[in-house]
Every structure is written in C-alpha cells, then in structure tokens.
Design goal:
Number of strands: 11
Helix content: 25-40%
Largest sheet: 5 strands, antiparallel
Distance between the termini: 47 Å
Mean pLDDT: 93
Shape: elongated
Order of helices and strands: HEEHEEEEEEEHHHHHEE
Strand content: 15-25%
Strand order of the largest sheet: 1-3-4-5-9
Low-confidence stretches: none
Radius of gyration: 21 Å
Length: 282
DNA sequence: AGCCTATGCGAAC
DNA sequence: TTCGCCTAGGCTG
C-alpha cells in the first residue's frame, strides 16, 4: 500500500519502535544475510522517508535503502519475536529494556533492500522531485517541468522526478478534486492551478500519514449513512470505474496511463480544449 | 485451490 | 511495451 504517506508513516513508526536501541538484524530468507550480519547488534538511529523510498540509519553512517515496490510490507509487531514465516528479507528485533517493550519488524516483498552509503542516499534524493510531505519543499522545479511539456498531467504526477511520493491513488483523486482530465497536456495548466494542486497535496498527504490511509472526499460529498468498514479510504474515483460519480452521478471511467489504471469522471473532468483563436473554427 | 488484481519500478525486449 | 518481483486480499468455483 505504498504511496509517500505510507513510507513516511512507516519511518515514524520504525523510529518510535526501534530508535536509539541496539537491534538484532537478520535475514531469515538469506538474501540480505551478509549485510544483516554487519548491522547486527549495532544501534538503530532512526528511519526517514523521501518520496516512496525508506532509509534506515544505523551507527557508523550505515544506511539501509528500502523500496517496497507495489506490494512490499514492513509490519512492526510488539512483543517477543515469533519464528519468521515465509520470505522475510530483513528482520529487526529490539529486546525489552528500561520500560520499552520488545518489538520486531519483518520486511517482505520489497523491490529494494540494500546496504548503502550516504553518497548513494544523496543520489536517490537528487533524482526525486519535491515531496509534498517534506517541510518547506519547493514546488517550483515541478512546475518548471510540467509547464514545459506536452506529456499528460496524469503521467507527470506519477513521475517521481517531477513530484516525489504521489502514486496512483493520489494521482486520480487529485485530478478529480481539481477537475482536470488526466490526459491534459502539462503545458496547458495554469500556474495557479498547479499551485492549488500542490497545496492540496501538502494538506492531503500529512492527513494520510496520520490516518495511514487515503481519504480525499470532502464532507459534503460523502454518501449518507455509516461508512463501510473496509480498509480503503473514501475516494472519488480510484477503482470506482462504472460506479456513479459522488458529485454528478456520471459513470466513472478508466484507462491505462503511465502503465497504471487511471480513473476519472468524464463530466467533472472534461477533456481540455484549447481556446479557439478564430471564430471561423468549428 | 486457482485466478486476478494491486497505492511501483527497473530491466529486458 | 512487456516482464519480473514473489505478497496478500478478494473473488470464483
């Protein structure tokens, strides 16, 4: 379930559970065994996220770079560690100590888990666009890129070199909230429109960190009655193809864009038409 | 049980 | 553009 808010929340939770503690590091699966051995018994300083990347800081400036990919997981458990089941690439264990509970965390299914140095980490950060979750992040570089290309905005929002941390759910929902069609060329957006979208992310994504889910529906658009107890958040269009738009009732549409299914309301997000220059046109 | 899909992304073709 | 990663939930049967 990883968009930027998931990784930020994970970094905070890992820091809370293991920060400042000497940890046992292992790789039950074996693919990270040599690296785990180097880190085993050292102090875990804390975790940080950047976009969808996660960094674990250990003493002596050793860093573990993790990317969960589409279905990686890194759940934290309280209590004594149970035997690892399945393919656990990395396990952190902290023993009980002065008031703190024992805890452990198992990493599975990640596309990336590597012991790196600070140069590598800097390189990853250099390749990322501004992250709305990073305090003080400057949206200007993102606007520079968006305003200069014909590439569709629905593709640009997913490009981590343009914006870091936005994934398929935030893409779909942000475009709906701003009534923008996913295929609209970047350079046809007005600066004010982009800045409004950025500001929306600056508010939506921290809310996602707090709740650990993505909710984007404004109160006035929430369907009446109790909220379904599912794990997913309240969304306008994501994976709602064929269902009625929460605002206008039109059937939500879907189409693959940037390799992923994108979703939009054809009425609330009309296809962009450039302003006609001649009254003779059409 | 088996199949499909998925909040991602890099490598291979 | 397609594949691989190799998890997990939901649906079908």
């Amino acid at each position: 379930m990883p968009e930027g808010h998931t990784l930020r929340r994970l970094a905070e939770d890992l820091s809370g559970a293991f920060g400042g503690r000497v940890v046992a590091v292992s790789s039950p699966q074996g693919r990270f065994a040599e690296e785990a051995q180097l880190l085993d018994g050292t102090e875990f300083l804390g975790a940080d996220s950047a976009g969808k990347h996660l960094f674990l800081d250990f003493e002596d400036e050793r860093v573990v770079h993790i990317h969960l990919g589409l279905y990686g997981k890194f759940p934290i458990h309280r209590g004594e560690a149970r035997p690892a089941v399945g393919q656990v690439r990395l396990r952190l264990v902290a023993a009980a100590e002065d008031g703190r509970e024992p805890a452990y965390a198992d990493l599975r299914g990640a596309t990336q888990c590597a012991l790196v140095d600070s140069d590598h980490r800097a390189g990853v950060l250099d390749r990322l666009g501004p992250d709305p979750l990073r305090a003080g992040a400057d949206p200007a570089p993102a606007w520079q890129r968006i305003s200069r290309t014909h590439r569709p905005i629905g593709e640009l929002l997913m490009d981590q070199q343009v914006l870091a941390g936005v994934g398929n759910v935030y893409r779909a929902e942000l475009l709906f909230r701003h009534r923008i069609h996913p295929l609209r060329p970047g350079k046809t957006l007005r600066r004010g429109q982009f800045l409004a979208m950025w500001q929306d992310l600056v508010e939506l994504m921290p809310a996602g960190v707090r709740s650990n889910r993505i909710d984007t529906v404004r109160p006035e658009h929430l369907p009446p009655g109790p909220r379904p107890a599912g794990r997913g958040g309240d969304v306008y269009v994501y994976r709602r193809q064929g269902l009625p738009c929460l605002v206008c009732g039109t059937a939500i549409r879907t189409q693959v864009l940037a390799g992923r299914n994108s979703f939009w309301c054809p009425k609330c997000q009309p296809v962009y038409r450039s302003r006609a220059r001649s009254s003779a046109a059409s």
